[in-house]
Write the structure tokens for this entry.
Amino acid sequence: MKKRKRLRGIIIFISTIVVLGIVFFILNVVRSRFSNPFEDYSYYENISYNEADYPVCRDINELEPETKRLCEKFLKACEKEGLPVMIIETYRSQERQDYLYSQGRTREGSQVTWTKKSYHTSRKAFDIAKNEAGNMFGDEEFFRRCAEIGESIGLEAGYFWKEYQDKGHFES
């Protein structure tokens, strides 16, 4: 009788552990399926790479002419509204894009991009941040207002994307 009770207790304990494991697994799958891996947008804080091998380009002169024109117009409009915008990336080589894509997938780190075919590689995209130490990516109102300005001058703002919001991304 005692052995049966003890065996029953062990079976209940193991069953509870298995059920909890399954529940946590399902919750993790659901969370990852319906959440945006880039929603905290600490993009450049999460990148881990040797910049000498995959340098960041912040030069708007590296953008294709129409995107450069729209970028300049965007920067002027933001300045006029008192928004402290800084360009944090423009052109991106395909090698750099592939390297960024591998982060959080085939190598360590958080995922920082959702595609291998970025507009950055065709010189038609740029990324911004708020030029304020300690608050480069956290000011939701700043990014919303920048996105509205960008859209009003003919840029597509990643801020308004439904599937993978990319707050500081603009493309033409």
Remarks:
- The chain has two domains: 1-35, 37-171.
- Strands lie at 85-89, 125-130, 156-157, 169-171.
- The longest strand covers residues 125-130.
